[in-house]
Specification:
Layout (H helix, E strand, L loop, with lengths): L20 E5 L6 H9 L17 E7 L2 E7 L11 H14 L3 E7 L6 H11 L5 E6 L3 H8 L11 E2 L8 H11 L27 E2 L8 E7 L5 H9 L17 E7 L2 E7 L12 H16 L2 E7 L6 H12 L3 E7 L7 H15 L8 E3 L11 H13 L1 E2 L1 H14 L4 E2 L2 E2 L1 E9 L4 E7 L6 H15 L7 E6 L5 H5 L1
Parallel strand pairs: 1-3, 1-4, 4-5, 5-6, 8-10, 8-11, 11-12, 12-13, 18-19
Antiparallel strand pairs: 2-3, 7-14, 9-10, 15-16, 17-18
Length: 486
Amino acid sequence: MADRRKPMRPVAPLPTADLPVVVIAGRPNVGKSTLFNRLVGRRQALVADTPGVTRDRKEGLAVIRGRKVRLIDTAGLEEAAPETLFGRMRTSSEEAVAQAALILFCIDARAGVTPADQHFARWVRRQNLPVLLVANKAEGRSGAASVMESYALGLGEPVPVSAEHGEGLSDLMFEIVDHLPEEPPEEEPEFEPEIIPEVQPEEGEEYVLPERPPGPVRIAIVGRPNAGKSTLMNCLLGEERMITGPEPGLTRDSISALLHDNGEEFEIVDTAGLRRKARIDESLEKMSTSASIEALKMAEVVVLVLDATLGVHEQDLQIARLIEREGRACVLALNKWDAVEDRNETRKAILDRLSISLTQMRGIPVVTFSALTGAGVGRLLPVVRETCTVWNARISTGALNRWLEGMLERHAPPLVDGRRLKLRYMTQAKSRPPTFILFGTRAELLPDDYKRYLVNGLRETFDLPGVPVRLQLRGTKNPYADQKRR
């Protein structure tokens, strides 16, 4: 049997780290996220009328007048004690400003220059970084009149825009490019990306692992609120990228970051906590939930984080079933393992609950760790690699049909309407997730319990734990059926 658990091919690093960083900063509710979405060209950041929607800084790739930049949306700058939520949000914004090649200092032209604008404008001037003053919400006469007041901030000539209506963005883009440092000369690319098609195993091989298309392995971190998802992401990245604290529901938007580990690149997405649908009543939380589900759908491997001290909750099982329905690979992450008193009993209780309530993902890999202390977190990415390998695996048609013959001899298909089903042939249609097609006479009438028997046999024989396995049925058509009815 060929070894399919070889490391995946290292991918070429994305060039985003070398791009100039443009940071949008300002007090809350001046339209920073709306401007961010306009510049990146899609609705990437959550936008609402409520002040303080953005908490974690969000990055996006923007092409401005042909110039690629890393655009960062930040939380609103507010005066607050460092240990408070608003203090932690301000610290995150200051860390983003520190790496900026250009700061877009955004104000609300309709509200005029406020004392908070003046205070943070003085702070921005002390950073000794290029600054472009953006007077947002400048549509109409009242907004245009207030633009003149912004000269008092000492940040140069303001650029009036209306991010909501798309007015003035062309002028703003020209100004951004003019304020950026000169673009370095282009070098010959060392890596030419190409899409590598999936290939079937050759005769005599049972497995072949198609090489992944170039690009990072996409990982989504999901779970209920306060399970430690953001703390886990900070631990993986080795920096305080996400705002964390004892308050549940701190993360509102899906935040992605790149991580290099052992020659491979991962795109990790931290998501907002998923609660029961009946408990979601605010429009902002509905948007957060939608963003989390969208991140789950786009991932290759989903890390489901559980609070090990609380065990498996029904909502955790609902999230796992959603992962299975979307065809994503899954790794179960038991966080706060250092706070568990009886670890053997806790692990047994969790695995027993999963075996009963989550039979469609039998053999799901489990990793225990403490994201707060970092103990055991190093075991997570190797398991993610392994699970991604299984998700990409292909099995030869010959091996499948030898296996099918043995399964039919062990337990013959049941009678349906007094007639026996004849299962003749099986092949794998695709991977990501592994999907198989079973052909036979009246195969589409195969009972669900026999389908489960075959799926469980596929998992055990070909070692497919923790990933959804799809089994599609194709019956053969009787060419004389129409003649018999005449």
